[in-house]
Design goal:
Layout (H helix, E strand, L loop, with lengths): L7 E2 L1 H22 L10 E3 L7 E3 L2 H4 L5 E2 L1 H14 L5 H13 L2 H26 L3 E9 L2 E8 L7 H17 L3 E9 L8 E8 L3 H47 L4 E6 L2 E5 L1 H7 L3 H7 L7 H15 L7 E7 L5 E13 L2 E10 L1 H46 L4 H29 L7 E3 L1 H15 L5 E6 L6 E3 L1 H18 L6 E11 L3 E2 L4 E2 L2 E10 L29 H11 L3 E6 L5 E8 L21 E5 L3 H13 L3 E5 L2 H10 L6 E5 L7 H11 L5 E5 L7 H7 L3 E4 L4 H12 L2
Parallel strand pairs: 15-17, 23-24, 23-25, 25-26, 26-27
Antiparallel strand pairs: 1-4, 2-3, 5-6, 6-8, 7-8, 9-10, 9-13, 11-12, 12-13, 14-16, 17-20, 18-19, 20-22, 21-22
């Protein structure tokens, strides 16, 4: 193995390597050294063991004790065109390399001695460190230098070499402080000439001026360099900030979410997606107060959350509200908010996402699962209704047999009434649980919801499973949908009951106030510190194996047989929990039962009150139409209303009722009608009546209808909406309230 020829000392390339690395970074350096560093054809002896060779590397190319071959130098100089961008890369590299490689002392002396002395000195240095050529300074006079390079036989020269040399000589002239006028190659061996000749022309001051200028620059250079560095760093910081702002603006403007910043109750910034969601400009929103675009039932929550956030209080980052666009179309939107500093003052950054379609799909999923749960409950409900019917039938028979015994008849009738109310309450709970309307949230007491849920559980779960309920008296209210909270309890307890089928035990339901002093991790979220109401459902069943605990919330995952559920129960519970900004987690050990913990944010408001009907009613006056296709109900309604002073016309046909009304519409003061009837439904009957007398009050009643609920009835023009079987006192109070307005 033989080392490469020693033609050119590496001192010639140290300046080039430093220049490229400083100006063009690691990428530029790699392009410069491509084909040289690591090439097994180019080897040099090790310093500590000259008998051992190694491929040439950067450490060799910057060390003056090493030499390289003419071939390697040609590769390096040819690579300049790839490493140095822009015009005349070889010339620019030579110019930059010579200026970067000179020390402060070299520059000072260069400026003192001037171009003539420096050129002669460079020629002597070349003869010592370059064996491929002789450098001659033919003439230096009248600010013109002529330098010729005579290459020795056998050495190859390219235009890359010539451009590099021209840059070096121009750089030497610049190093003296002289003003470079021109630098050009007048003869070239590549073109067939016997030598390469370079002419350099400059303008320079006198020796005394150069000396004074150099001394001044020497003493002020550090100060100038420091100032230049500060300016450079400042400019780079401005560029970085500008680039950062541009990147963040692109991210925000291209976000799939609407983004807006609210400060002092007004929107101060919004992206284009926010406009697409609202279809209203920020100026218009601020002019009319954007809070008016929030659903009336959600406004207080938004205002309170904004105030609490800007005053430093703990507020959940995520909330779901209903909002209206320009066409007053209602959308369900998810808002994720955080407190920021905006132009020196606190503001709230909001990411707004339209989840209307997702919300509707979740509603459909929950409704489907509720129907599945109703099917699960049906056996227990059927058993309970058979008991109720048995009580009614038995007491009716006793009453008939004891007609001569008033006390016995009164007792039998009271038992029939109690059993009927019991049946009505079961139907009411079942319809409440299965109805579709789940959008409205209200401030509610958890204890009341738990009482209703447990009442239904007791008639649907095996009697040998004990249900224990304990809700603290001081339990704080929460904001939620009672039907959905009801569904959470029902699903969790049904799961617990299924788990204890083989060994009946106890289901314990507990509600209590807690306060989290730090963030706590739940299944799929972290809850912020603050007051919460914790609802716990625990059982004494076999527990959940550790390996499946992370999967129990997966849709369609179930350990039950296919005839006992779809596996959607806990997935639906998780969706409801998220909809209430709450958290859920499971604690379970095989053989030690399961405890499911749900934490809801507590609110400092009183629960919404529901007025209760009085037990008695004194009487009234006026002409009423009572319409029900069930003859017995029509006659009972007529007789009871007549007993308290009203004149009543009863109809079992809605068509006959319309016909009678149209003959003399002014004689009717109020209409009570059933919803589900043959020939004409109650809402169509109401429409026909209101077309003649728009101000006439109509009370719409139904046992169950997918087409009608309280909200739809009000929109259709009903004065009141009541669920059957209608409590007579409630009906009498409603009629009195409407007629005395």
């Amino acid at each position: 193995m033989k080392a490469m020829e020693q033609d050119i000392n590496c001192l010639n390339f140290k300046g080039l390597i430093d220049y490229v690395q400083q100006r063009f970074g690691q990428d530029g350096l790699e392009r410069l050294l491509d084909g040289v560093v690591g090439n097994p054809d180019f080897i040099v002896p090790k310093k500590d063991d000259p008998e051992v060779f190694e491929p040439i590397g950067i450490k060799h190319l910057v060390d003056p004790s090493y030499w390289i071959s003419n071939e390697v130098s040609l590769i390096l100089l040819n690579n300049i065109t790839r490493a140095v961008p822009g015009p005349e890369p070889g010339y620019q590299a030579g110019l930059g390399a010579i200026l970067d490689s000179l020390s402060k002392t070299d520059l000072f002396l260069s400026k003192v001695v001037g171009p003539k002395v420096l050129a002669r000195k460079a020629a002597k240095i070349n003869s010592k460190f370059n064996r491929t050529k002789d450098v001659r300074v033919d003439s230096i006079e009248n600010n013109l230098g002529r330098i010729t390079l005579h290459y020795k036989p056998g050495y190859r020269v390219t235009k890359d070499v010539c451009n590099w040399n021209l840059g070096i000589y121009a750089g030497l002239t610049r190093a003296t402080g002289a003003k470079l006028v021109s630098a050009r190659e007048t003869r070239c061996v590549v073109d067939g000439d016997e030598c390469c000749e370079f002419q350099i022309r400059w303008r320079s001051a006198s020796f005394i001026k150069r000396l004074l200028r150099s001394v001044l620059r020497l003493f002020t250079r550090d100060l100038i360099n420091e100032h230049e560095q500060i300016v450079s760093e400042r400019d780079q910081l401005i560029v970085n900030l500008s680039e950062s702002e541009k990147q963040y603006r692109q991210l925000i403007e291209n976000s799939a979410d609407g983004v807006c910043i609210v400060q002092d109750g007004k929107i101060t910034y919004s992206n284009s997606r926010f406009f697409e969601l609202t279809k209203i400009s920020v100026d218009e929103l601020n002019e009319e107060s954007f809070i008016n675009r929030i659903h009336p039932e959600d406004r207080d929550r938004i205002i309170r959350g904004y105030h609490n956030r800007v005053t430093g209080q703990d507020v959940p980052n995520r909330t779901v509200v209903r909002a209206f666009d320009r066409e007053h179309q209602e959308h369900v939107v998810e808002i994720n908010s955080s407190l920021i500093d905006w132009k020196g003052a606190p503001a709230v950054l909001n990411f707004v996402r339209d989840i209307t379609r997702q919300h509707h799909l979740e509603q459909q999923l929950r409704q489907s699962h509720k129907m599945e749960a109703v099917g699960t409950l049906s056996g227990g409900i059927a058993h309970e209704f058979n008991n109720i019917l048995g009580i009614i039938l038995g007491n009716a028979e006793l009453g008939i047999e004891d007609l001569d015994n008033k006390e016995s008849v009164d007792h039998a009738l009271n038992q029939i009434k109690v059993a009927s109310i019991r049946g009505r309450d079961i139907v009411s709970q079942l319809l409440s649980f299965s109805r579709m309307d789940e959008t409205r949230k209200q401030v509610l007491g958890v204890g009341d919801v738990l009482q209703d849920a447990v009442a239904m559980l007791r008639i649907s779960i095996d009697k040998d499973i004990r249900i224990s309920l304990k809700a603290d008296e001081d339990c704080s209210p929460i904001r939620g949908n009672p039907t959905q909270i009801h569904q959470i309890v029902l699903n969790l307890c049904n799961n617990a009951a299924h788990a204890m089928e083989d060994a009946p035990g106890t289901i314990s339901i507990r509600a209590q106030n807690i306060r989290m002093d730090k963030k706590e991790v739940f299944f799929d979220r972290t809850l912020e510190p603050g007051p919460y109401v914790r609802l716990t459902v625990s059982d004494t069943g076999p527990g959940i194996p550790r390996e499946i605990q992370d999967r129990v919330f997966d849709p369609f995952y179930s350990t039950k047989s296919i005839d006992k559920g779809s596996g959607m129960g806990l997935a639906v519970v998780l969706g409801i929990i998220n909809n209430h900004d709450a958290g859920i987690r499971i604690h379970s050990q095989p053989g030690a039962g399961t405890r499911v913990e749900c934490c809801f944010p507590a609110v400092d408001q009183m629960p919404d009150q529901v007025s209760s009907a009085s037990e008695t009613f004194l009487g009234g006056h006026g002409h009423l139409f009572f319409v029900d296709d069930e003859s017995a109900l029509a006659q009972v309604g007529k007789k009871r209303l007549e007993r308290i002073g009203y004149q009543v016309s009863a109809f079992t046909s809605p068509l006959l009722a319309v016909e009678a009304f149209e003959k003399d519409p002014d004689r009717v003061d109020l209409v009570v009608t059933d919803m589900s009837m043959p020939d004409m439904t109650g809402d169509l009957l109401m429409k026909r009546i209101l077309a003649v007398r728009p101000e006439l009050p109509v009370i719409l009643c139904t046992g169950y209808s997918q087409k009608m609920d309280e909200k739809r009835a009000q929109l259709a023009g009903a004065a009141a909406f009541m669920m059957k079987p209608v409590d007579f006192n409630e009906l009498a109070r409603a009629i009195e309230r409407i007629l005395t307005r």
